[in-house]
Amino acid sequence: MQTIDLRGICCPTNFVRALIALEEVDTGQRVLILLEDGEPLKNVPRSLKAEGHRLIGIKKALDGHFEVEIEKGED
Predict the structure, then answer these.
(1) Is residue 75 pLDDT above 80, yes or no?
(2) Are 41 and 66 in contact, with CB atoms under 8 Å apart?
(3) Which domains does the chain have, with CATH numbers?
(4) 9 pairs with which residues across the strands?
(5) pLDDT by residue (tens digit) across 50-64?
(6) Is 45 left (phi over 0), alpha (psi -120 to 50) or beta?
(7) Dihedral angle computed from the Cα positions of residues 25, 30, 34 and 36, in that order, rounded to the nearest 10 degrees
(8) What's the pTM value of the predicted model, to 2 decimals?
(9) Secondary structure E strands in the chain
(10) Which of 6, 18, 31, 52 could lock 73 by a disulfide, CB 3.0 to 4.6 Å apart?
(11) Cα(61)–Cα(25) distance, rounded to whole angstroms?
C-alpha cells in the first residue's frame, strides 16, 4: 500500500496533494495518508469522500499523527 505523508502541510494544500497522489494509483487501490490532528484530520478525509473516494478507516499512530486509509474511487 502506498503511503502519502502530508504531515506539516497546511490546508487546503494537503488535500490538493492527496488528490494529485491519488491520480497515480488505480481505481480500487488503497493508500495510507498520514495527517496531523485538527483541521487536516477533519477536512482531508471529508473532502476526499466528497470527491468519490472511500474512507476505510482512521487510526492514531504511536507518535501522535493519524493514518487515514482511503480506497480510490472511479476517475
Answers:
(1) no
(2) yes
(3) 2-71 (3.30.110.40)
(4) none
(5) 999 999 999 999 988
(6) alpha
(7) 110
(8) 0.93
(9) 2-5, 30-35, 54-60, 66-71
(10) 52
(11) 24
CA 73 to chain centre: 13
Q: For residue 75, count CB atoms less than 10 angstroms from its CB and return exposed for 0-12, middle for 13-18, buried for 19 or more.
A: exposed
d(CA 43, CA 29): 21
Run of H or E including 22? helix 13-22
Three-state SS at 24: coil
Residue with cell string 484530520: 41
Cβ contacts of 33 within 8 Å, gap of 6 or more: 3, 4, 6, 18, 44, 67, 68, 69, 70
Cell for 54?
472511500
CA angle 25, 75, 48 (to 5 degrees): 75
